[in-house]
Design brief:
The protein is α+β, with helices and mostly antiparallel strands and 152 residues long. It has helices spanning 10-15, 30-37, 85-96, 127-150; strands at 4-8, 16-26, 41-42, 47-51, 54-58, 61-62, 79-82, 100-109, 115-124. It has a 7-stranded antiparallel β-sheet.
């Protein structure tokens, strides 16, 4: 079966330099998991913060499940991320450095059915870095088109 990707944060790769990536668990309620199985998640404005030795994911939008009548949840409520103490201490040290942020890049289901979040330790790009990345991307695209045209 493999993994099933629910949502990606494509904007993160444009806005940040990704230094490290962590696979972390997330604490969800039943209707939220069902909604994610339908692909109703959005990471566009999501970020993570360390609070009192715990890591929380903020602004991740999970659309309320249509079949859930007994509970109403805030779609952008903070959700706890599951990491071990060693990883949390390391993240605290890195995020206290200037410019580092915790950004979710992907939410997916594992082969066993668990919901996982790919959390990246990232440093913000400057405007000129973004322009340079776009130029490189366009150059690669043009090279691939020429290769395809001439059969290389």
């Amino acid at each position: 079966m493999g993994i099933k990707i629910v949502c990606r944060n494509r904007k993160a790769f444009h806005e940040y330099f990704i230094d490290e990536v962590f696979e972390v668990g997330i604490v969800l309620l039943g209707p939220e998991v069902k909604s994610l199985r339908e692909g109703r998640g959005n990471l566009a404005d999501g970020y993570a913060r360390v609070n009192n030795g715990e890591v929380f994911l903020h602004n991740m939008h999970i659309t309320p499940y249509h079949g859930s009548h007994y509970v109403s949840l805030d779609p952008t409520r903070p959700r706890k991320l599951l990491l071990n103490k060693k990883e949390i201490k390391r993240l605290i040290g890195k995020t206290e450095e200037r410019g580092y942020s915790l950004i979710p890049t992907k939410v997916y289901f594992t082969a066993k059915g668990y919901v996982k979040v790919e959390l990246a330790l990232a440093k913000g790009k400057k405007k000129y870095d973004k322009r340079q990345a776009l130029k490189e991307k366009e150059m690669k695209k043009e090279i691939n088109q020429v290769k395809k045209r001439y059969g290389y």
